[in-house]
């Protein structure tokens, strides 16, 4: 059953179709009285931009509502139980379709940025990236399942049942964890691609380094605190790719899990850390076996 993207209350339908697919009316949520899912009318580019901007409503649309059958004119009830198996299969199919594309992009970025890896070692980098992603997703999925089981036990023991309006809990499926992580990685990959383009030389001639504080007012640029702060942001001291991959990547993964699991951010952070630890152990093993530093041992895939 689809849910409202604003309050996560389950709804029977997202929109009603009149005579043709181009003639439709959005359904209203009975709980918050807003449109159940305005993203039904948005195109793929809008969805992609909102994913990069980490909007929780687009996560709920893609995870729980995409592919839901509309209400046809004259129809009064829906058989949602009939749709659930096919929607679960669609989620697995989407994981298989989306995963290799994002892994390939990540592998190209790693291969280009890692100067220690020879050019002919791209297949090894791709295989290592696939292994990193697989282990990370398995770790986060296991942690998410244990987290939900613990929350169920806590609520049962202390007689605090879930609200009937919490659709994210009743509609949770295992493949949604991997989908959430893949969707969350779009922000990180987008910025890494921009960083790769920015680092590319525009001409074969060498570019002289820019002094910290260039372009700022003189009294600010000459201040010792300002100069030391700007010097720390220099690429020789500040690894921008590491910050994007780990800090921003970890935050976006935690945000996506927060939307999916609907629990405290500390718990989703623990789930991400568990997957990160599992991935780091696997990456160290791969590097030891291959004798090359083809994996990012302490980075979030």
From TrEMBL:
One cellular component (GO) term of this entry: cortical endoplasmic reticulum
Family: Belongs to the ARV1 family.
Pfam families (alphabetical): Arv1 (PF04161)
Name of this chain's protein: Protein ARV
Residue ranges of the TM segments: 92-109, 121-148, 174-198
Membrane topology, from the record: Multi-pass membrane protein
Keyword Lipid metabolism annotated: yes
A Gene Ontology biological process term: intracellular sterol transport
Purpose of the protein: Mediator of sterol homeostasis involved in sterol uptake, trafficking and distribution into membranes. Regulates also the sphingolipid metabolism.
Keywords linked to the UniProt accession: Endoplasmic reticulum, Golgi apparatus, Lipid metabolism, Lipid transport, Membrane, Sphingolipid metabolism, Transmembrane, Transmembrane helix, Transport
Location of the protein in the cell: Endoplasmic reticulum membrane; Golgi apparatus membrane
